Amino acid sequence: MSQRTKEMLAKMSRKQKVFQLEQLTTATYLTKGGKYHIITGPNSPIKFDKGMVYDVGTSLNLVGAETMIDAQTNYLKNSKYKNPLMIMQDVIHGHRTIYPINLAVASSFDRGLAKDLASMAAKEASLDGMSVTFAPMVDLVRDPRWGRVMESSGEDPYLNGEMAKATVQGYQGDMGKYNIAGCVKHFAAYGAAEAGRDYNTVDISERNLREYYLPAYKAAVDAGVKMVMTAFNIVDGVPCVGNEHLVRDILRGEWGYNGVVISDHGAFDELITHGVCENRKEAAYLAMRAGCDIEMMSSCYGLHLEELIDEGKITEEQLDKAVLRILDLKEELGVLDNPYRSVNVEEAKRVQLCPEHRALARKGAEDSAVLLKNDGVLPLDKNAGDVCVIGPLGNTGYIIGGWHCGGKETEAVSVLDGLKNKLGYDVKYAQGCQIEYDSVDESMFDEACQLAKNSKSVVLCLGEHQDYSGEGYCRTDINLPEIQYKLLDKILEVNKNVVVVLFTGRPLSIGRLDKVAPAILNMWMPGTEGGNACANLLFGDAVPSGKLTMTFPRNLGQVPIYYNHYTTGRPKALEDDDRFVRFTSCYIDVQNSPLYPFGYGLSYTDFVYSDFKLSNNEMKAEDKLVASCKIKNVGKYKAKEVVQFYIRDVKGTCVRPVKELKGFEKIELDVGEEKVVSFEITEETLKYWNRDLKYVAEKGDFEVFIGKDSDCKSFAKFKLV
User: Fold this and answer.
1) Could you tell me the residue ranges of all domains in the chain?
2) Quick one: 440 exposed, middle or buried, by C-beta within 10 A (0-12, 13-18, 19+)?
3) How many CB atoms lie within 10 A of CB 610?
4) Does residue 384 surpass a pLDDT of 90?
5) What are the angstrom distances between the C-alpha of 510 and each of 6, 442, 478?
6) pTM > 0.90: yes or no
7) Beta strands in 252-395, from DSSP E residues, in sequence order
8) How wide is the angle at C-alpha 162 spanned by C-alphas 160 and 168, nearest 5°?
9) Using CA atoms, how far apart are residues 715 and 702, in angstroms rounded to an integer?
10) Spatial distance between the Cα atoms of 75 and 24, rounded to a whole number of angstroms
11) Which of 43, 131, 404, 511 is the most exposed place for a label (fewest CB within 10 A)?
12) Does the domain made of 605-721 have the CATH classification 2.60.40.10?
């Protein structure tokens, strides 16, 4: 807390202080109209008088430098106190230049790439006047039915934490001119929503919460994230925005976090809907007691906080601390000195979508794509005859993904355009079918089949529409639409040289596709440069290196399915055995193993792992062990490989997972090149939350695995003594 902000606070009336805790949409202050972001919750009337609206401390959801200038100018013109707005936005995976969805970026297993992409987004957003982004979203997710998996880094707490740190560092940097403050969300455990349904109940144990769900938020806090957003859901029966144990005890107490805490959209009012508060006054009391500073898009603080102070239920000191946290962030971001911060209309036009940013977005899409299957079809030969593009996602920019901020589908490169750019001739296209899930229209099949019959190779673009995943887009059917399977079957009748390019914002249940498609390249939702990246991958100018960060199930009945599961007391001996074994934990109609496990992804080359070594077979608490392995590229392409390091705690006072990711390194090897990759094991590596909620490493046996994915078999053993 600086002397300057303390002096500012001293000059403010109580009402002005209260309204620093309120956040309204920036559209409230526009005089000329303009583009602002989608309202993500009930836009209920907020009954503030006009004068108080101009004492509100922060605003959200605005795109464009000119509209930012208009809103801030109008606000300052009408504000008596002249305390500038701090403007926030959902800059989730790019601002104007859109890079792949977060689930895809995590599939790159590249911390540096994640950091660079976030830094690029921060620069573009800062030029439009943004000060804060509501990102990164680090909710651990195990259920692909949940629409918001596209915003996450997947199912592993270690990987989530590494991506959280990298993204925070990218957005915030040294908090300079082109940096913006990060806001980690949603605290906490929003990804555990029952049945994969948005805004639904979360019911997990404290140990499970600490073991799996909290580590990524903690990693973001340790990386210096400036803001934390509470989640909509309940934890232990209490909604997060009013959960004193989560916010005051763990976040502020145990972790020592002293930054700004903000609610999600309208979450104060939802305390009433949840049934823990009778009215908005009670909601204001519960949220302030828990330690929430900013109320997003509701009016509980504004209407009732002064009254609660008069009644002695809330102290003036609590209010002052919350306001000072907001003022300090404004000062750190430079908003107090320059209300328009880095906004620059002309510079924004030059920088946004510039060639350098498009190149980085393209690299992000190339390194995030996951090759799921390849029966020798890929890479395609540029000189082997005409290639055609077929499918509802082959000639559209609607592959940039949900939550695309200021990105425009019309500025995105489609697969068709990407292939034209690559091949230099007029690649033919047929849509084949509609994208809608309930479509039964086969009228376009004949045109598509005729085109496929007359082409050497077919690039068949299937998957989800980008609006089928994201907030509020949860699904009970995560397979491809039946009409797309029918189209595929028809195409295969006339041409077997088919590559399925898959677009999706979540893991899909595509066992049927895996059985018949000769090759499957999962592009996720790849962003603005998706088509060019796809073309580079299809023709071998880039080699797929992405690895899955969420398990793909064989069918929906396996969900939730994740790699770091427990064995149970009656495990099936072989998880991928098709045979039913009664009185073991298994299904009668499908094997236990997934279609594609966590960490899975193919390449155009082959990597051989050998010389797996441990520096010792015994370890004391103060010691360090080194696990190492030699990796050699024995194929035909220079390529990248994600070397993955797992540990299993053989016996604990609590049941332990079959494997846990403890490290990874992405390496690039030329043809014939080999490299030794090493991972360090310390006592900290072996710690977990035991049944007494103590974070400890327990003596006993451990197994160590290094391999291509979570299904790796080779291991060595050591004992912690």
Assistant:
1) 1-39+47-89+319-352, 605-721
2) exposed
3) 10
4) no
5) 58, 21, 8
6) yes
7) 260-262, 295-296, 370-374, 387-390
8) 95
9) 10
10) 12
11) 43
12) yes
